[in-house]
């Protein structure tokens, strides 16, 4: 199986669209790695734009991988959250999330800030405004493909070093931590698309002498 990747943004960015019936709308995008990080950014935005009428948001974090009936990899977020921040229910957070989903992005937070301009937009107008702001901000941001990785723990004797190093190179495994005592213990990070073949080859070529978790 080939390497597997997910798409996200490269860096934080902010983009403001032209006013809609007097209201200002602008989106701030953040690449994120955890729910805690997303919540910290939300606190930061609310402090920065404390005078805004609304700071509505959606984020997706974590990667769940599964396969369809044809063996095609399907990538879904492990967790997602929306917040309408005082706008009518489902007129802000969900439309923002729909834009992130439509772009196939993971590990991303989008906050759309609104300064009310004096004219009510109605449910349809709000949905369109928040969607449009999120979409425009993405169109002005840089995207990147990041590897989907997992960690594997190994324990083996010194006579297996040559084999292990060869397979590290073959499967582009990166050592996260290691210790050397009576045997070698290592934690390696490897693309999830390679992980089953990596484990299988380690086990078969060492005749089961490598402990793999």
What does this structure look like?
With 213 residues, the protein is an alpha+beta fold. The longest helix has 18 residues, at 122-139. The chain is built from five helices and eleven strands. The radius of gyration is 23 Å and the shape is elongated. It has helices spanning 35-48, 93-102, 122-139, 161-170, 195-205, and strands spanning 5-9, 13-16, 24-31, 54-67, 73-83, 108-115, 143-147, 149-156, 174-180, 184-191, 211-212. The strands form three sheets. It has a five-stranded antiparallel sheet, with helices on both faces. It has a four-stranded antiparallel sheet with strand order 9-10-8-11, with helices on one face. Helix 2 runs parallel beside helix 3. The mean pLDDT is 96. It folds into two domains: 5-146, Impact, N-terminal domain (Ribosomal Protein S5, domain 2, 2-Layer Sandwich); 148-212, Alpha-Beta Plaits (2-Layer Sandwich), CATH 3.30.70.
Characteristics of this structure?
213 residues, alpha+beta, Ribosomal Protein S5, domain 2, Alpha-Beta Plaits, 2 domains, four-stranded antiparallel beta sheet, 5 helices, 30% helix
In short:
The chain is 30% helix and 38% strand.
Biggest sheet architecture: 5 strands, antiparallel
Estimate the strand proportion. 35-45%
CATH class of the largest domain: Alpha Beta
Q: Termini separation (Å)?
A: 20 Å
* Strand order within the widest beta sheet: 2-3-6-4-5
Series of H and E elements: EEEHEEHEHEEHEEHE
Sheet/helix structural class: alpha+beta
